[in-house]
Amino acid sequence: MNSMNKTARIAGALYFIYIVATIFANVSRTNLIVVGNAIATANNILASEGLFRIGFISDVLAGILFLLTAWALYVLLKPVDKNIALLFVLLNMGGVAVQCLNMLNLFSAVLLLSGADYLKVFQADQLQALAMLFIDLHKNGFMIAQFFFGAWLFPLGYLVFKSGYLPKILGIILMIECFGWLLYPFQFFLFPAFTVLSYLSFAVGFIGEFSLTLRLLIKGVNEQKSNVLRAG
Fold first, then answer.
1. pTM for the whole structure
2. 114-125 pLDDT tens trace
3. What is the CA radius of gyration of the chain?
4. What is the CA angle 89-149-205, rounded to 5?
């Protein structure tokens, strides 16, 4: 296996593990957080605190994995255009930084419900409401990160398209996904009632990024074309 194919497989593996970690983190919280119900949410978190903490760690690890994925893709695609490859890495880094820092809001819910002595100045219902507030803040912070995660897809897709050693159709899908995924945070902040727009983002995102992941992991790159590019 040549170095380009090895890099492609590493990128695909990191991308796949990132997707699995993200799905696990989201699923672990699905039944714990009851939208608009602070009491039920607090009771669920206290009853399944271990699962909540594991989901939290999984989210943080997913951020690291996504950053490593961007690094591997940078190594793979920098022969096409180093500056544009650097651009998508910087956008990815911005999103990961926002998302990881935002995880403090999520963990604040556990701290508020911990029963620590310094929190006894608050009533139980006040702590439950504050915990729900920080969970809502986490959701808003997550949406801010999506601006970066949507934007990084365009330069990534452009380099995939221009590379010649990955299918051009994948590059086109990723560039389209950039605009589709950006609908998600724009809809959340500007048109919160039109949640149907988010379903379009999820569908395009799944097709684009999962297809790229499978291509890198299973088939790698076209060795002949990658060698031609490096030789040039």
1. 0.92
2. 999 999 999 999
3. 20
4. 120
